[in-house]
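Working notes for the structural subgroup meeting. M.R. asked for a predicted model of this chain before we commit to crystallization trials. I am recording the input and output together here so anyone reviewing the notebook later can reproduce the run.

Input as submitted:
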Amino acid sequence: MMGRRGLLAAGAAAATLGLMVFATRSRSVPVPPPLAPPEGPLKVFHLGHSLVGPDMPHMLMQLAPEGHAYNSQLGSGTSLRAHWEPDEAILDFETANQAPAYRDAKEAIGSGGYGAVVLTEMVELRDALKYFDSAKHLGKWADLARQASPQTRLYLYETWHRLDDPDGWLQRIDGDLDALWTRQLLGTDSRRNPQKPVYLIPGGQVLAAVARSAEAGEIPGLVSREALFARTPEGELDRIHINDLGAYVVALTHYAVLYQRPPIGLPHQLSRADGSPAEAFSAAAAARVQQIVWETVRALPRTGIAAAGAPA
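Returned structure, recorded in token form:
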């Protein structure tokens, strides 16, 4: 049996440990230095899951300068840990990874042959952080890229949660950026590598901004957040996966961050990865969406854009 003094000591130690954990989580995360626009087209590697998908990187290639190329390794709901650990299964690996886009992730990132590497973590992000060592494995992938080539630019693609999230879809996007994506997922690696950090591609932030503008009547022909999301084969709303319009928004966001350029005036009628025409915004709607994308990414300094506003 532990005596009263021992109990008090144990309690004090536990309290100290709790404060240390809190302090680690609440410590500010360095704002990364701004980036210069790349000098030419990029070769990009996308690591992730179905919120990357086959179509968004293909749309990005159509928006980007001639010579842009990409490869990917994807799964369904796949964590960064599952991509890293050889013994962990990747759900839907065979169907998600098709030639010519697929390339083994460790081989690709370890080759040093990419101008940019975009990492994507699974959602629910709270579960990824708690059970799947998200921050640790983001650091592993980032270190692999850094060791292969100091010129490779590193990014985290911020996604979103289900439209029917009990805490609210917009509320989660607003609250999670600092609390989860920045402080918990990016924090440790950013403090270790302040001059060679992982930058942010704020897909969730931009999608939320477009949804808010649509619901305020500011985007011709788009009236709700649901209009950015896919439908199941039975016609039901898919509450997590975006449709062609949503993929276009996210592709514009990738373009603006990767190339450090406004996406104003880019094409809006694109094709899917299989070559079929993608559903498209009207010209007027696309112009407004492009403006929203640029306003949003410029307001977030973790994108690396030099003209960004105050630190998030």
